[in-house]
Give the backbone structure.
Amino acid sequence: MLVCLGDLVDDVIVHQRAAAFSFAADTESYVSRRRGGSAANVVATAQRIGTPARLLAAAGADRVGDGLVDDLRRRGIDTRFIQRRGRSGTVVALVDHTGERSMLTDRGTSADFRPPPRTALRGTRALHIPLYSLAEPPLAHTATGLAKLAHERGLLVTVDASSASLLDELGRARVGSLLDQLDPFVVLANADEAQRIDSAPNYLVAKAGSGPTTIIRDGHAVGEVPAIALTGVDDTTGAGDAFAAGMLTGLIETPDELVGACHRGHLTAAALLVGRGAGRQHER
């Protein structure tokens, strides 16, 4: 089983149809809603591809929170340890005509997740923590405590760098200290995020969108995994979380095969995008 610690929020996706955004005026768009939060997305995808998953998160004690938790439960995800209080968070993703995203975030009660019972890690193989979970207490304290417990139990621990702006806010020294404290086997990052991480305790997996993913150890590239090329992609929202779910599923099944796990991550992300009509897929 995979356990993820982090956010469960309401995602509002705004697809800009016009070529340019009209400031202080109208811009034709298409708006959709879906369950969001990096940790929630990872468990949902992992469950879908056959890895039992559990979410540790705080959700609002409101109708939005009811819907978010019910959605996960219907998908077979273990929601027993989700804590309900406060107001649900919302993330607005602005997707321009090229598919590039900008995020407006209101985490609501997300950071108010307090230490769960030790049984929250019972029967699990891996703990995945988005760096968002280290941004503010009490969730940050919960994350470090759970990572320590996971290591004591011999579980795989991984971290997602989450966002370049978060890394800038925390600063290189603080990020390095947090990663040393969590001691993850893998730190996942995109190209912008990877440039803001001086080093990882073990492996840094640097994704590059449609380009190859680079596996880095001690500052040196030790492997490269080609992406799955797609045509007609106009919304990459959630692709990074899908990659994480696929990679983690691979590592749970075969812990020593990081290259193979990354390939599985690419396949899982591509399947998500193809499911949205991204077009025909083929190997790069």
Remarks:
- The mean pLDDT is 93.
